[in-house]
Amino acid sequence: MRILGPALAPGALVFAAVALAGPAMAQTKWNLPSAYPADNLHSENLAQFAKDVEAASGGKLAITLHPNASLFKAPEIKRAVQTGQAQAGEVLISLHENEDPIFGIDVVPFLATSFDASKKLWAASRPAVEKKLATQGLKVLYAMPWPPQGLFSKTAVEKIEDLKGAKWRAYNAGTSRIGEAVGAQAVTVQQAELAQALATGTVTALITSSATGTDVKIWESIPYFYDIQAWLPKNVVFVNQAAFDALDKSTQEAVLKAAAAAEERGWALSETKTKAYMDQLAAKGMKLAPPSPALKAGFEKIGVTLTDAWLAKAGADGKAVIDAYKK
Ligand code: PCA
């Protein structure tokens, strides 16, 4: 009568132990909104980051990506993470230059125009960017650059004056100011709405990267690209500090390790992909050219004015970062 009892007991215990292990190893889930399409270079790097975190944390932390501004529009992501509506996010940091000039240091025209220079600028500015974001309850995970910024135009541009009256697409305060400086009509359009704006003709000229040009199939409406290499803006991935603090120590370490790897990988990815994007623009029949000496001189002149304006706003703190960068 009692034979089955003891025979079943060990199995039952194992079952109970497994059932307990489930809730004990509860999985934390983070939502991570971003603003660029799933096959964009930043999104590709983010996807690898999320995978690495899940693997390194032994499945304890799962990050769900929400690319293409599907959860929050580009300018809303930062606030969403600050307020805990999302645990982490990716933003074009210069979108928030109005909160602190340090967020716009990477879009000061012609300050850092190559990947190497931009990396140096990030190293010099990172402590100040981290400090400011920390006051907002955000912890920086990593930063990744966009390819160098060039000029796309519906019509040929030989000199700055040729941009007068153009319908100028801006993506942040800096690109708006450039639009105004060249005498164009500036309108801010985030990338998620850019393809539409190009198709309907509300945009005829813009400064952005070959990557964004490719993302929005810019060749369908814009034939000219001038490789002015004016600056390399960055996306920064951050996490709500309280969400980070709620992780156990080993999971925190897994996140930081994956973030460091994502930063390394991201800079290399952007650099290698730049050539592929340029080749793609050419293959689609676009006319790619370096800027004429007159156009280059014109943009450099505007660059000097904007650099002075940035320095005036950023004060001693900003100057200290620029000095550190130039050392
Ligand atoms: N692409 C983004 C920002 C910088 C870039 O290269 C955009 O055009 O919105």
UniProtKB/TrEMBL annotation:
Disulfide bond listed as a keyword: no
Pfam families assigned to the protein according to its UniProt record, in alphabetical order: DctP
Signal peptide span: 1-26
InterPro entries reported for this sequence: DctP_fam, TRAP_DctP_sf
Record GO biological process: transmembrane transport
Record's keyword terms, sorted: Signal
Domain of life: Bacteria
Protein name, as recorded: TRAP transporter substrate-binding protein
Biological source species: Xanthobacter dioxanivorans
